[in-house]
Amino acid sequence: MKIEDVFKNNQKWIAEKLAINPKYFEELSKGQAPEFLYIGCSDSRVTAEDIMGVQPGEVFVHRNIANLVNNIDLNVMSVINYAVRHLKVNHVVVCGHYNCGGVKAAMQSVDLGILNPWLRNIRDVYRLHKDELNAIGDENARYNRLVELNVQEQCVNLIKTAAVQQAHQERGLLVHGWVFDVNSGKLIDLKIDFAKILKHIMEIYKLS
Question: Less packed terminus of the chain by CB within 10 Å, N or C?
Fold first, then answer.
């Protein structure tokens, strides 16, 4: 695709929206009130709006390599704080995907330079679940299971934050863990049990 095509596509998109609703952009410019914060992978095949079937203004999105919620990453922490405390979202989603390049890279015994400290977070997930993962003989199945476990651990990291704990108490905010199957297009709900996780970790991580 040429750069020029992007702007042509933009003009076509504008015309399509205005044909449906002449006041579409006027209404869009008034502000946002999304129900969802979506934390996903930067992978170009996995776009939040498309796989969720939502429109602009309906989901607040943050993406990074392997959909990590790293407590020392000011970017993701700022997004969480803004979405939860200011936009008042009621659902926070961590969405990973099978065949994730970041997860696969984390399992390679090679020096990946600046990626090393970032991917170490995924290696830590492997360490926590190594008995289960090492028992999986098929390498691809092992990687995909690590994708699921990584999503689960990032949900735990979300629940550790004061903003999420407070919003859960005040308005019942929930955390969800999903995986996108690139091969089928399906979203898989990992059925994260917010209350169970919070109860399990609250002795150490309760902040509100």
Answer: N
